[in-house]
Amino acid sequence: MICGGDFNFVFNLDLDKEGGARRTNFNARKDCFTLMEKYDLIDIWRDRNPLTKYFTWHSNISEIHCRLDFFIVSRHLSFKVKDAFFQPTFHTDHCMVVLCFDPTDVPRGRRYWKFNNSLLSDPAYIDLINSLIERYKQDPSALNADPVFMWENLKFKIRAETIFYSKRKATQSRNYERFLISHISKLESDIFNGMAPNSQDDLENAREKLHMLYKNKLEGIIVRSTARWVEEGETNSKYFFNLEKRNRLLSTIYELLNKDGVLMNDASQILDEIRSFYTSLYSARHCSSTPCFDNLPGFHSD
Predict the structure, then answer these.
(1) CA 278, CA 131: separation in Å to the nearest integer?
(2) How, if at all, do strands 96-101 and 17-18 pair?
(3) Of 162, 180, 210, 253, which residue is the least packed, with the fewest Cβ within 10 Å?
(4) How far apart are the first and last CA of the chain?
(5) What's the gap between Cα 242 and its chain centre?
(6) Using one digit for the tens of pLDDT, what is the confidence trace for 118-171?
(7) Other Cβ atoms within 10 Å of 93 Cβ, number
(8) What is this structure's pTM?
(9) CA 21 – CA 18 distance, rounded (Å)
(10) Residue 5 pairs with which residues in a beta bridge?
């Protein structure tokens, strides 16, 4: 969400107003704060200029200056705002607020795989892995292999089997969710039109199944959002959706200074620079043939 204009109030009487009485439209400010908290919005210019004083409205008669004009944007979109600044105009007592926004999505590659420990409560998954281990123990090629190699190879096989199982389970869950939504809609339509007056129990049962499905999905979102605390009914799932989205955006590199001090914001250039840096870092280099201990007192190489 992006919202901007003349709000006719100031957020901070110390930073956003100078001259006149220490008051503003407190009711409007309270409503705006409520809206910002509900939808996780921020005053983007103030967020980037926390202590700077700048005023967008001036009254030459009463010598009052206020910052009444600003943009509030969704926190998860703040990384796409390249700049926010004020620009003088004419024939008005307000300044222009300029927001430079880049809607381009940063291409994302595959993430690091993390084990979903909720699978440990899935009997089907447990049986699958136990069966895999038993088959691996009977594999003739593994009987005489190095124990370290056997262990690493087994972990690789478990990882591959887990990824395949998780993808299949996620697909089944999405299909089941779509089925429940469609089934509930049909039951509601039939009941409302008098075509299935005895289907109320089926409707409640389907709603309960959908509720449990969403509850399990929310638990996963809470874990991925790394929320430190949560109480049953304390807040709705939108908070955790936003938190997960924010964490995902925080892990994305939008700008990067290269070795020459040039700021890059093009995704392909950033990827090339990172690839070049780590290629150079982990490439083999010429090392001195002089033993390193020869320079230490009391040590001599043979």
Answers:
(1) 40
(2) unpaired
(3) 253
(4) 71
(5) 7
(6) 888 889 999 999 999 988 888 777 667 778 888 888 899 999 999 999 999 989
(7) 10
(8) 0.47
(9) 9
(10) 70
What does the alpha-carbon distance between residue 17 and residue 118 come to, in Å, rounded to a whole number?
53
How many other β-carbons are positioned within 10 Å of the β-carbon of residue 235?
10
> H/E/C letters for each residue in the chain?
CEEEEECCCCCCCCCCEECCCCCCCHHHHHHHHHHHHHHCEEEHHHHHCCCCCCCCEEECCCCEEECCEEEEEEHHHHHHEEEEEEECCCCCCECEEEEEECCCCCCCCCCCCCCCHHHHHCHHHHHHHHHHHHHHHCCHHHHCCCHHHHHHHHHHHHHHHHHHHHHHHHHHHHHHHHHHHHHHHHHHHHHHCCCCCCCHHHHHHHHHHHHHHHHHHHHHHHHHCCCCCCCCCCCCHHHHHHHHHHHHHHCCCCCEECCCCCEECCHHHHHHHHHHHHHHHCCCCCCCCCCHHHHCCCCCCC
Angstrom CA distances, 171 to 51, 53, 183, 213, stand at 49, 52, 18, 13
Distances (CA, A) of 97 to 51, 76, 94: 18, 21, 9
The structure tokens listed for 134 are: 């038993």
Structure tokens at 131: 């069966």
Structure tokens at 292: 């390193």
**Strand pairing partners for 73?**
2, 42
Q: CA–CA separation, 188 vs 199, rounded Å?
A: 9
For 199-233, write each residue's pLDDT tens digit.
Answer: 788 888 888 888 888 888 777 766 665 544 444 44
Assigned token pair, 89: 């105009």
216: which 2 tokens?
A: 């399990």
pLDDT value, residue 109 = 62
